[in-house]
Amino acid sequence: MRVYCYIDPGTGSMLFTIFIGIVTSLIFVLRELVLKLKFVIKGGRVETSSERYPYVIFSDSKRYWNVFRPICDEFEKRGVALEYLTASPDDPALEAEYEHVNCRFIGENNTAFARLNMLNAGILLSTTPGLDVYQWKRSKNVKWYVHIFHAVDEGTGYRMFGMDYYDAILLTGAFQEKYIRKLEQLRNLPAKELQVTGSTYMDALKAKLDAASDAEREHSDDTQDRKTILLAPSWGESGILNKYGSKILKALLETGYKIVVRPHPQSLTSERDVLEPLWKEFPDSEDLEWNYDNDNFEVLRTADLMITDFSGIIFDYSLVFGKPIIYADTSFDTAPYDAAWIDEPLWRFEVLKDLGEQLKEEDFPKLKEMIDALLLEGQKSERGVRVRDEAWQCVGQSAQKTVDYMIGKYEELFAERV
Questions:
Q1: CA 216, CA 208: separation in Å to the nearest integer?
Q2: Which CATH number characterizes residue 361's domain?
Q3: What confidence score (pLDDT) does residue 37 get?
Q4: Which of 247, 255, 399, 405 has the greatest count of CB atoms below 10 A from its CB?
Q5: Is residue 2 pLDDT above 60, yes or no?
Q6: Does residue 213 share a domain with residue 289?
């Protein structure tokens, strides 16, 4: 007698991803042991002394300096000691002049994680997902791990188990809580501490925009200037450049507008095979420019309209700069992400229609007409304000609230020693 078992494709994909995750985790455990031995043998500094750093920030990339700088500035303002550890040798933090914030490079990739795995600290704050999943393990000498978002979406776009083993998560808006709680219930995880603190980098963007001169802010409204369209894709199989490649670049060039293409920074590492043919086919010219600036302020400020997919830059551009967007239909594949566990529409896709218009491949021939109409109409202001109020709370107070949380939590955890 034969017994047949059917597993639907979605569940099968999820189970396969979990299996790969378990196997990979076992490999990384063995690699971690080897790394620790090499690290010690080569004279690496093992930070498991009796000295504890009360507050530590870890950044895996220089591109998150916009998230952490306001927090470092707030620690400095309060005269409270902070260790800022970075895995980028060219992190702008290393050039910052602080008295109370000590910024240092701890090595790249596995070298950085080997040091973090032996760290002695009270509170560690990071935007890096995957704690205790792959090579970054919880140190037995770190009391409390806190995750901070670098985007104002619902937080399900990390690779699976991205935030599972943090102790606390700082939210940009209260709407994110239901997604986190849902994942905890499905995975039988203890409830993490959640605190709404807003978005540090969006606060900084807004302050920078407010400080700009009227002439600079109104530059994009000068009808004598050639309008600029920004193409800002995410990375991965569902991103615009992966799915549409040269088709969308040709369609954009046919509009006659100045085109700026800003690939996701991760694309430069993970999908150069996608970018290199496009660089060759569409080199920099007076009509098209490739942008890789670490600070995206100028490219966002000068663009008149942005085309993207599911990238978090949607919210930077729309909510801070108040300009129209077009979002491409890329049929987002949730399989590798925490989103695969959520059986309801994701917040980011539900609110897109309140911020702009959807672009499908069959619309490419009329892309200019779509752009012209949106430039004339401007942002859908009333609905955009609703999305902003939901996603980006504590406006202008995020750095203060983040530092308040870290200091308050440390005092609670080590009350008998403070």
A1: 12
A2: 3.40.50.12580
A3: 55
A4: 399
A5: no
A6: yes
